[in-house]
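Notebook p. 47: complex prediction with 3'-deoxy-guanosine-5'-triphosphate.
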Amino acid sequence: HRHAAGARMGVLSKADLSAFDEKQATILVVTDEDSIPAIDQGSEHMPKHISVVYENDARMALEAIRRGEPDLVFIDLGMESYDPLRLCSGIRAFDTTRMAPILAIASKDETRQLVRALDLGVSDYLMTPIDAQELAARVRTQIRRMRYLEQLRASFDQTMEMAIIDQLTGLYNRRFLSNQGTRLIEEAHTTEEPLAALMVDIDHFKMVNDTYGHDAGDLVLKEVSARLTTSVRGSDLACRTGGEEFAILMPRTPKESAHDIADRVLRAVNSVTVKLSDGQTLDVTVSIGVASLDRSDNLATILKRADEALYRAKQNGRNQVID
Ligand code: GH3
Ligand code: MG
Ligand code: MG
Ligand code: MG
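Predicted complex, C-alpha cells below:
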C-alpha cells in the first residue's frame, strides 16, 4: 500500500508538493489526553499553516469529520472513554468520510489494537513515544496524499462533466440522452409507469443568426435552455440534441399531463425577450412535439414520434404544441 501511494506521488513535481504544503490544513486529534507534546515540539518541521484541534468526544469528532473540517485525523488507540476502533470503522462507514486520512497513535503494548486499526483502513500510524520529526514527516505525507487525491477527483469530475454536458447551454448532451434515456425507458417499462417525451425546436432560428449574428444566436440558445430547465421537474431529463433542438424525457408523466407541461414549457420560453448587447431585444418562440411511451417503444421510437409531432407543429404555423 505504502509503495503504491509512493509511486503515484511520483507524478507530482516539487512545485505541486510545495503548493500542497502551503495550503491551510487542520489536524483533528481524538484523544482523552490533554495534549500530545510531540505535535507542538515538531511544529517547526510541519507544513506551514497547520492548525491542531483536540477532541475528547468521539461522537463530536465524527460529526466534525462528516462536516469535512479536518484534513487529517489522529486517533489515540489508548483512548479509554470511547472505543477508538469503533471510531475508525465509523469514519470508514460513510461515503462522505471514507477517504479521510487517519493516523493511529499506538503504544508498544497496543499492537493488537493497531493491527485491527490497520485492518479497518487507517492510513498510517505512529508509535509512542512519538518522535517529533517522524510525526512531521508522516503528517506532510498524508496531507500531500489527501491534496493529491482531491486534485485527481476534481479533474475526474470535470472530465465526467465535459463528457455529458453541452458546453454552451449547460444542458445534458445527446450522448447522455441516449445512455440515461435508455435507462429511464427500461425503468418505465419495468415499473409500468408512464413516461412522456418532448421535442422542442426554436422557430426561425436561422433568421436570428442571419439577422443578428451568431453570438446573438448563442445567447438565445442559453436563454431558451435556462427556461427549459426551470419549467420542468428536477427528475426530468432535459438535453440539447442538436443545434437548436432539445429533447425532454419526463418519467412518471401520464399522457394527460404531458400536453399541459408542454404548454407550460412553450409559455415559459415564449415569454422570454432576449436582450442583445447593442440594446436590441428579440422575441423567441418554439414548437413542441409530444409523445407518450407505448409498450413497444424504445428511446428511438418514442423520440421519432415526438419529432413527427414537432414537424406537424412547424407545418401548422409554429409556436404551438402538437401530440
Ligand atoms: P424552423 O422554424 O423550421 O425550425 O427554422 P429554423 O431556422 O429554426 O431551422 P433550421 O434547421 O433551418 O436552422 C437551424 C439553424 O440553427 C441553422 C444554424 O445556423 C443554427 N445553429 C445550429 N447550431 C447553432 C449554435 O450552436 N449556435 C448558433 N448561434 N446557431 C446554431
Ligand atoms: Mg430545423
Ligand atoms: Mg428551428
Ligand atoms: Mg432544427
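Notes: Residues 211 and 217 are 10 Å apart (CA to CA). Residues 1-10 have pLDDT under 50 and may be disordered.
Next step: compare against the earlier run before touching the bench.
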